[in-house]
Specification:
single chain, Immunoglobulin-like, Ferric Hydroxamate Uptake Protein, Chain A, domain 1, five-stranded mixed β-sheet
Length: 247
Amino acid sequence: MRQLLFLGMLFIGTATYAQNTYGDIIGTLVNKKNEPIWGAAATTFYGESMFRAQTDIDGRFRISAVPAGTYEVFFVFEGDTIYAPNKVDVAPDSYGSLSTVTFAPIDDMAQNNDSVKQLDDIEIVRKYTLTIGEAPMTKLTQKEIKFSPAKNDMKALVAGMNSDVRQSDDGSLVFRGARKGDLIYYVDGVKMNEVFNLPSSALGYVMVYSGAIPAKYGDTNGGVIVVETRSYFDLLREYNSRMSLGE
């Protein structure tokens, strides 16, 4: 009986730790005159859980402690609601940025949003790319993994992500300045002793730290490989998106 109780407590503790893979969503909300909007509600959902933040006097917001995944964010201000034009990817222990979002009705966005130019029936949206994470860290998203030639070989995938990592003759991963196999490997927050292959369709993010390793991952002279699998809600959003497009 004591053994069963101990195993149950161990399972609960491991499951709880495995769920602690969160990130933030950041950005700035402005009006059509490019003036910051103060007091608007920035909101997103993860299943039935709602995450919300309020814009400050400079129009900036940070939605904190959001589970890793891909999100749509909408804004409510003075009774009006708009959605951000792009979805945002949130990686574990990192952030996803929406950059600057213009709060304007949908019917006049093309005329008043400087980030959208209309040419006949085609809209060209100027996108801003910001570095996500803390250097030196490299990250692959699910879309990038999908088209990688090494998507079915985790070690080859990791070695191809970062020039500080290479595969030895026996296939082991070697981080610069460290012994062969000196690394820490996490899958959904659970520490592993070996790098395992996972179905590429199940991978949400693969991140490699070759330096400036966060203290939460422990002590190592090598590096850290963090793998976050896709959640039920990620798959559900993808399915709904396909259905809406008639695929």
